[in-house]
Design brief:
Oligomer: single chain
Number of helices: 9
Strand content: under 5%
Order of helices and strands: HHHHHHHHH
Radius of gyration: 19 Å
Length: 216
């Protein structure tokens, strides 16, 4: 969360204010309320999807959780974006979606064959991956609607409100998942965060800056 705010503020105050008609801070102040709400809601949905993805990786492994979750997100995002704004070739779009669906099914079947009788959390990990995919595919149409709202600012201001939604969602949802872990593990306290080495925090902040660099 710190890295996201640092990154979006850095780029907003530099590249987001570089043009004669582009000013980051005035754009933030003039953003319509509906665009703020849609962008923040997109950030909250994205944050929950990420938490589910981490839990799914813990249970099912990266080789299963990532292709299933992100693959489904591509499907949901592509279809919802096409419904909202039908552009491009339907043949190429739905052909690609079909290939992604086939890949997800094959990956799930391979995982099921490998993990039969091996891990009790196998099914839970797969279910979390699917829920993550639906949510991950839902956040972008919300952000897209925010950017298309009448009077909406540029991408840097929208990215800031997206990050704001992530931040507002992080504290209560993270706390809930810490006390009621969805991966079946024992509850954890906040002491683990404060006791983590500085290098861990630095890596997390850097990861947030890198991610938000590609977002606008």
């Amino acid at each position: 969360m710190i890295g996201l705010f640092a990154g979006v503020s850095l780029w907003g105050l530099t590249l987001g204010s570089a043009g004669p008609d582009v000013h980051f801070l005035p754009a933030l102040a003039s953003t319509p309320l509906n665009a703020v709400v849609l962008a923040a809601l997109g950030g909250a949905v994205f944050n929950i999807a990420n938490l589910l993805l981490v839990a799914a990786i813990e249970l099912a492994g990266m080789a299963v959780a990532f292709p299933v979750g992100i693959g489904l997100a591509l499907i949901v995002g592509a279809l919802s974006s096409y419904v909202l704004s039908p552009q491009g070739s339907p043949l190429l779009l739905f052909g690609g979606v079909t290939l992604v669906v086939t890949a997800i099914v094959c990956d799930s079947l391979a995982y099921r064959a490998r993990e039969t009788g091996s891990r009790s959390g196998a099914r839970r990990g797969l279910i979390l991956s699917l829920i993550c995919g639906v949510l991950m595919g839902t956040f972008y149409p919300l952000v897209s609607r925010a950017m298309d709202s009448p009077g909406a600012p540029g991408p840097y201001a929208i990215a800031f409100f997206f990050v704001l939604g992530v931040g507002l969602c992080s504290v209560p949802v993270n706390y809930l998942f810490m006390k009621k872990p969805i991966d079946g593990q024992a509850p954890v306290s906040f002491d683990g965060y404060t006791a983590a080495p500085v290098a861990f925090h630095a890596a997390g902040i850097l990861g947030g800056v890198i991610w938000v660099t590609g977002a606008p």
